[in-house]
Amino acid sequence: EVQLLESGGGLVQPGGSLRLSCTASGFTFSRYAMSWVRQAPGKGLEWVSATSGSGDSTYYADSVKGRFTISRDNSKNTLNLQMNSLRAEDTAVYYCATENYYDSSGLLQHWGQGTLVTVSS
Amino acid sequence: EIVLTQSPATLSLSPGERATLSCRASQSVSNYLAWYQQKPGQAPRLLIYDASNRATGIPARFSGSGSGTDFSLTISSLEPEDFAVYYCHQRRNWPPGSFGQGTKLEIK
After folding, report:
1. Is any Cβ of chain A less than 8 angstroms from the Cβ of B86?
2. A contact residues 33-62, partner B, Cβ 8 Å cutoff
3. What's the rounded Cα separation, in Å, for the pair A97 and A90?
4. CA-CA distances (angstroms) from residue B24 to A54, A108, A114?
5. Does residue A112 sit at the B interface (CB-CB below 8 Å)?
6. The dihedral of CA B10, B15, B20, B22: what is its sign?
7. pLDDT in tens, B21-71
8. 3-class secondary structure, A67
9. SS3 (DSSP) at A104
10. CA of A86 to nearest chain B CA: how many angstroms apart?
């Protein structure tokens, strides 16, 4: 059974940094691209970032480009999202999701339960 | 940018009834459209991918159709657990793709 467990969320001041992690189990982690998707309170879904199975290819939404960095450690089955220069509008539940292929294609198959990031002074 | 517009915003039906949700794209997305179900406090769950393919473990009462710009998700006979918010998602221009704003399916 695929399991994804996000961690690292919390309260941070505007301009601050936070590092999210997603620990995966139940599948061969290195074979699949992974994405982060966020959901602001009471709002819809917004894709944030993706990476290929190897981590060599990375992609970002315009809203986070230059501030967020996605990475993965295939030896530890872990996906990370380093978030810098955080803004109030980054407040959301952040989900990690598996994709269906080695290269990122946008088919978001399995989702974790999410971790809440709150950016506020 | 491809914009997905879902309708209606809210759909009120009773268990046992048939539900039809719509998703319209601002330009063709071919068949690169998926549907997700989200219940309160839970993560989204993939229901349908590539317009008409049910994801693993999804009951047969869920079906998807359409291509190009007009798509629909049909639930043939509503079960109590089907009342949730449904999102469509296109990956034709991935990344970034785009999500619809959601349709809330509520109990009448």
Report:
1. no
2. 37, 44-47, 50, 59-62
3. 18
4. 35, 20, 28
5. yes
6. positive
7. 999 999 999 999 999 999 999 999 999 999 999 999 999 999 999 999 999
8. coil
9. coil
10. 20
Name which of A34, A78, A27 is nearest A52 in CA terms. Answer: A34
Strands B19-25 and B70-75: antiparallel
- CA-CA distance, A27 to A3, in Å (whole number)? 8
Q: Nearest 5°: CA angle at B47, between B44 and B53?
A: 150
State whether residue A62 is helix, strand or coil. coil
In single-letter form, the type of residue at position B100 comes to G
Q: What is the pLDDT of residues A49-87, one digit of tens each?
A: 999 999 999 999 999 999 999 999 999 999 999 999 999
Taking alpha carbons only, the member of A8, A3, A11, A1 closest to residue A90 is A11
